[in-house]
Sequence to fold (464 residues):
Amino acid sequence: MEIKRTKIVDIFDASLVGTTVRVKGWVKTRRGNKYVQFVALNDGSTIKNIQIVFDLQKFTEEQLKPITTGAAIHVEGQLVESLGKGQSVEIQAETLEIYGTADPETYPLQKKGHTLEFLRDIAHLRPRTNTFGAVLRIRHALAFAIHKYFNERGFFYLNTPLITGSDCEGAGAMFQVTTLNLNDLPKKEDGTVDYEQDFFGKPTSLTVSGQLEGELGATALGQIYTFGPTFRAENSNTPRHLAEFWMIEPEMAFYDITDNMDLAEDFIKHCVSYALENCADDINFLAQMYDKELVNRLKFIVENDFVRLTYTEGVDILMKSGKKFEFPVSWGIDLQSEHERYLVEEHFKKPVILTDYPKEIKAFYMKLNDDGKTVRAMDVLFPMIGEIIGGSQREESYDKLLARIEELHIPMKDMWWYLDTRRFGTVPHSGFGLGFERLVLFVTGMTNIRDVIPFPRTPKRAEF
Fold:
């Protein structure tokens, strides 16, 4: 019977010692002398490499010459216990096949110690590095954990549109989608663009959120979640901004703000727990390379209850702290990352859920409190990150929602369908949004959001 390929993640099974195995992967390093050569091979399935031993009585130097860092090879040999340090097993090579070479003079990853900034310029190759292999495996595990969590709790996965005629957040910074000839735009008599000749017959953009459509699903199926790409056209070159990123947005009928907070806390603890249990090797590697406190910080999130307090209480703490902030604190301001991190990292030393924000700094769809000044919003604040989840109880009253839309001068032609959910069988309902890359950023200990997405989209950067 033909021997099947063994992935390197499975090669360390003690029961395989003494058997013949096949491995395929990319060369990390090669060293040795005139008697024996040692090659570290990795196939992407794990952070660990397998050491392959080439006896130069069986292989010529000419055969081994193409084995340089980055080359792809196929080796068959016996798996034996290793006498050397750093590995428990190794492969005594019997056959060698070269799939693809990598010229040492031109292969960008030939040397070690590249900066993360340099690697962003070669995003097509950076997944082959140990760092980005670890990050991408953790990203996959977190995505799986998210689907698993909601599926096990009776949520339905809803696909919301990427092309939309409305602006959920009122942000304005949206990427326009058009089939019109930009070099010869059709014009009306008043000189404005004639969008009736466009594909959809009106201006359309890439979505900034699937939330509004998610509410439509929740008021029919009970509880749904979205998990898809979203787009913001802000010209922001910061370690926290991307033009294209992924959002998870659950929406639940019959949930009030407390139910919403309970779900958000349980959900994010589940995700972090799953990563700790299933990505230990990758997390430990990243902790060793970038953030010695990473594992302790992740365990701390799982093991501690989140503090809950109102925005007003949070502002009061900040104003009495005696700390000099770059952005001065007063009631009514939109809290900055420095304010959020002070509450989490210095005052409470725990994750925080802030509630009841001033209505002026929150979106139109949030439920108004009885005081007429604040809304039932909730933000989950994490160490190192600041806000990681934002959500609210949604305004279910048709009259109040309509008044808010008119107050903010949101075009009714974009909102009639959303208001229908309040005209026909309206119910209390809530939801939140989690920026997926922010979660990956927290779990990996990386410090720049461009380093936790395979191909970052930022101003003036859209290769690959």
